[in-house]
Write a structure and sequence with these properties.
- Helices cover about 10% and strands about 40% of the residues.
- It is mostly beta strands.
- Strands 10, 11, 12, 13, 14 and 17 form a 6-stranded antiparallel β-sheet that branches. It has a 6-stranded mixed β-sheet with strand order 16-15-21-20-19-18, with no helix packed on it.
Length: about 325
């Protein structure tokens, strides 16, 4: 279970705290969930509830919900540096919990890559993002830490552009999928607050290289050619699914894939205006290429394995007036 503190504007007169719980999210009735798997000295795991070893970063992260102006960036920098100090303790990178109850974080299966992200919102309904990436190119190599910052979610990334870490377009990442063809390449599934009109979800490839991190890689094959990322941009009032489904066996088995809602405009004359887009009850998916070294291939009109209501990692609990373009 992971919560995200996202302070909303005065227009919505509330501060949102969103919590991951399994495959869904909810607004909490109270804060302060016990961490059942903690790091003793951040070097080993224990099975019983202990004093909160993550209190230093928990309090900084919580302060992002009420910060103002330049204080938010200072808090974000402090959160990144404190995380780096904690992860630098021997054994912490491997023993860190896969999930915290207050911050977005994803990790590779071998614990050689961890990505933490957070955000804070502005009165114009955009967000700023911060983050920290901890990576190790090979076993026993030194850890490399890379701080991330994106000033505004208003700027949509290009689908065919590669970005350096200092050009990062922010998002809150909730799942990581290793790329079967490219070494040290992973697909991040993320959520972006965007602005008052639209929300985004995206498949964001990240590459760990000796010269630094790269966001965006030509590993997604669509009918129009290779993409370096896949972006779903849709009306702020609707919910859209984007999630990884592992390979299943048996007579009804399915290959590994990344499944998501197909988006369509509410009316034909609104085509091209993403603020009027939403799910049309069909699904698309990327599946690994059949040949070694080939990219993920986009398949259209696929069957979703699990019920739709359990297939939405994000739910916005804000109490607000719904715009007319909401899809029922």
């Amino acid at each position: 279970m992971k919560p995200l503190n996202i302070c909303q504007t005065d227009t919505h007169a509330m501060c949102k705290q969103v919590i991951w719980e399994g495959g869904s999210m909810r607004a909490p009735l109270m804060y302060g969930v016990k961490v059942l798997v903690l790091l003793c000295g951040l070097g080993c795991t224990v099975a019983q509830a202990q004093p909160d070893s993550f209190a230093p970063i928990r309090s900084i992260h919580a302060a992002l919900a009420t910060c103002q102006g330049d204080d938010c960036k200072r808090l974000s920098d402090t959160l990144a540096s404190t995380l780096e100090e904690m992860l630098s303790i021997p054994g912490a990178m491997e023993g860190w919990p896969d999930q915290l109850d207050f911050m977005a974080g994803v990790a590779s299966a071998d614990k050689a890559l961890r990505v933490f992200t957070w955000n804070w919102t502005h009165d114009n309904r955009t967000s700023s993002y911060g983050g920290l990436v901890a990576s190790r190119l090979r076993e026993n190599a030194d850890l490399v830490f890379t701080a991330l910052y994106d000033e505004s979610s208003d700027d949509r990334p290009e689908e065919n552009q590669t970005y350096r870490f200092d050009e990062w377009h922010g998002a809150l990442y909730y799942h990581m999928v290793p790329d079967p063809a490219e070494t040290n390449t992973y697909l991040l599934l993320g959520w972006d607050d965007a602005d008052a009109q639209v929300t985004r979800k995206l498949i964001e490839p990240i590459q760990v290289r000796s010269r630094g991190l790269r966001f965006g890689a030509p590993v997604l094959q669509s009918p129009t050619g290779l993409r370096r990322r896949h972006i779903l941009e849709y009306a702020d009032a609707v919910q859209v699914s984007l999630r990884h489904q592992p390979k299943t066996k048996g007579r009804t088995g399915q290959p590994e894939r990344i499944v998501f809602d197909h988006l369509a405009p509410q009316e034909p004359h609104l085509r091209g205006i993403s603020a009027y887009y939403g799910p049309d009850m069909t699904f698309e998916a990327y599946t690994p290429g059949k040949r070694e070294g080939s990219p993920w291939v986009l398949e259209q009109d696929v069957q979703a394995i699990q019920p739709l209501q359990n297939d939405r990692p994000f739910h916005d609990p804000r109490q607000r007036k719904r715009p007319r373009n909401r899809r029922q």
